[in-house]
Specification:
The structure is a homotrimer.
Chain A (H helix, E strand, L loop, with lengths): L17 H20 L10 E6 L5 H12 L3 E6 L11 H11 L2 E6 L5 H11 L4 E6 L4 H15 L6 E6 L10 H12 L3 E5 L8 H14 L2 E5 L2 H5 L4 E5 L10 H8 L9 H4 L7 E2 L13 H4 L6 H19 L1
Helix pairs in contact in A: 1-12, 2-12, 3-4, 5-6, 5-12, 6-7
């Protein structure tokens, strides 16, 4: 158990050691039991977290806000539109000033090329921990929740195969943060990681390299596939979700048009049957129902999506309780 | 005193027994005294309520939020526009997921034909109580506050006459939820209920039937009138407010045009003089001043509107403390 | 130490005695130390503050909300757009009703000619303290924070020279509330107050007269200058910021056009060199960087802007703890 985490930022899991991340999971499990038992765990009494959102949110906002209340504190939902950022407040000023009022600053800024940069600038100026609620590059808390879910479902993740796959969606061009954070962390915990995507939907090169290196060190493996069906074959866990082809084009309409070539990349029962019998279906939600995945699969017995969403609460409470 | 209410939804008062509702009023009175005395009553320490709004709110949001704070917990104000519902989060998903983060889910969804349906779907999927903050059919907390106010003002409601009446307003086409919940509950507590409305402004047929049946069982009475002035005659309480003619047309402009035929349905001193001398004037607010009711009446000595608004706080705290 | 402040409004510092304001500073310093030491100070456990905003905010909302949490209570962020004010809720109704739910009501309403009037009407109807989070005339909490900062930086403010000056900005036409509240309070604490502005950018006449009278009583001084450079000469503190020429024209485009004549009213190193060597640069933020002030000055060693922003938290907690 690592006891030195007070004051630490969580921008990407890559900046935390395995031992530090293990401490997060250990505390998350304890806090999950405490909530199930109704056992008080107000480790952050009267402390507060600023949650600054530049993009819409259901699970993230709700789980951070409820989590802070359960820990005895408060999370303030701050829609960037209601602030004076448009009147000139800079990232540095936000870090300096919010850091003096609050005990932590959580930020969602997903704009391609800007999000991570903004969060880093706030963190540089802030005296309190900065938590990345999703940027253009990473989504660490989603993936910590995913890892906890996998541990709960399959036990030791080493040697298990996870297929991180592109899927088609029509709603909007989503960030790369979920698949990127997934391949990084899953490779680190010794899983056999498959990244399955069409040629136009590659992830950032340095992230892919880091994932490969993580796998090498952990004794896991990393491979890239280009065929949707192939990704499912023999997998223990599948995580097929949509993202934009940001490295091919930053034009959202162009990205949507390119995506349109892959409308058959939908997760259905036939594909699930290619995987292991008890293979888990994961998705960070919301999904484009019957476009990205059929109702039959997402609402079926192999779907872990609700347990996965619930674990957002527990891992986030663990990180907040340890760092704030 | 009923002690088995933990986990119960409050979608309509019709689904709660008289004895259960009596427990709500008993607790509401106790909590009202506690607040007046500054006596701590943190029955929901570190618990939290999601308040999901699809429509604007002043009193409802404020009273639920302040109420949760007074009970030691927190209510999260969630404007549906800031969520990912538009990106695909379904009612079932909201119920499943918010139910895992929060200890209760309160919803306002007033769209004609959709609101109640949505709340029922969330409740079906949720493991925690779902509270109806107003839908297209019911507004239970408003009417519980109204009943408490009547009990405080006139004592035993049995045999007292309440006139639930249409009034003209120009601001927007309001839901049927207030008059419908009113006739249901007031008839249940043995009042003589008058429903006064123009022919185009009828309430839903099955609600009217249930109100009639409630009156029969309680020893009260139920009658329908078509003349505005007649509704006031000899009444102990009047509750004239506007609503849209949703059963005549779902077109809002058409509804406004039909309403325009009844511009003389305004509550003024002459009309109040037709009622009993100490007749109470009630309104859930906001009112269209000098269109729906004159300033003289709404600001006058017979107006109970502020005490009525205050009682929102106390009945809601009672239901939350009993169910969450 | 004044002990009778429970229930008092804070709309302008002018309505509080020197001795009452001294109590605020005394408590603010104590609460600042308590936070630095991690010493619990939950003086408002389970109490709540409504924060009603008609205008955007970063520091004000964050510092009030975090402050209430630190005091053990809760501040509700209420964007006026989400309420039913547009459906008819009057100022009187807001005061009556929010005053029954919450333990305090804080309001930001900066519309020229309307803001202060609105806050006064709410306060008239409210049974709980009303706190002015900025109106068209006053910004008392900003200036209390400014005074605390000056005391921390220069010690006894008597005889020190502060230059409250217009500066050019292009972002939007700002209220007069900051310079007006500044000249009132600084003159009251015995400072030599300079008000420097172009002819079109005068402040309200009665405010200027009160500032002059405050200076006379306190043994300070008050003078008006028309030359930007002259304002800096020998000053101990400079507070150059932009405002609209509301008394010349209420037309925002016209105001912007008139402001355009003064683009050289920018605070730079040359101007700072005219002041005393350790002269403090103050600004309530956000500033129009490199238009209103150069980065070199606002980010330089003489800039007090972050300490000034932080003190918002401490003075506001003091007023809330004393009044609510």
């Amino acid at each position: 158990m690592q006891t030195h985490l007070r004051g630490r930022d969580m921008i990407t899991t890559q900046e935390w050691t395995r031992s530090e991340l293990d401490s997060v999971f250990e505390v998350a499990k304890e806090l999950k039991r405490a909530r199930a038992l109704g056992k008080p765990h107000a480790h952050l009494r009267d402390k507060s977290l600023a949650m600054l959102f530049f993009f819409s949110s259901t699970r993230t906002r709700a789980s951070f806000e409820a989590g802070m209340t359960q820990l005895g504190g408060h999370a303030a939902f701050i829609d960037s539109e209601t602030t004076q950022i448009s009147h000139g407040d800079t990232a540095k000023e936000m870090g300096e000033i919010l850091g003096r009022y609050y005990d932590g600053i959580a930020i969602r800024q997903c704009d391609w090329g800007d999000g991570n940069k903004y969060i880093r600038e706030v963190a540089e100026a802030s005296r309190v921990p900065v938590l990345n609620m999703q940027c253009d590059v990473y989504h660490p808390f989603q993936i910590l929740a995913d890892m906890l879910t996998i541990m709960e479902k399959v036990g030791d993740p080493r040697g298990k195969t996870i297929n991180v796959s592109y899927a088609y969606a029509s709603s909007y061009q989503k960030p790369l943060s979920v698949p990127q954070s997934l391949i990084l962390l899953m490779a680190r915990y010794g899983m056999n990681v498959r990244l399955t995507a069409p040629p136009e939907f590659q992830l950032m090169g340095d992230i892919v390299e880091q994932a490969r290196e993580n796998a090498r060190r952990s004794g896991g493996s990393f491979e890239q596939l280009g065929d949707f069906d192939a990704g499912f074959k023999g997998a223990d866990v599948v995580y097929p979700k949509s993202w934009g082809c940001w490295l091919t084009t930053e034009d959202k309409e162009e990205s949507a048009k390119i995506g349109g070539k892959y409308k058959d990349w939908i997760t259905d029962s036939r594909r699930m049957a290619l995987a292991k019998e008890d293979c888990g279906y994961m998705h960070c939600l919301p999904a484009d129902r019957n476009i990205e995945v059929t109702d039959e699969v997402i609402d079926g017995p192999n779907s872990w999506v609700y347990d996965e969403a619930e674990n957002r609460l527990h891992v986030q409470k663990a990180v907040m309780a340890l760092t704030m």
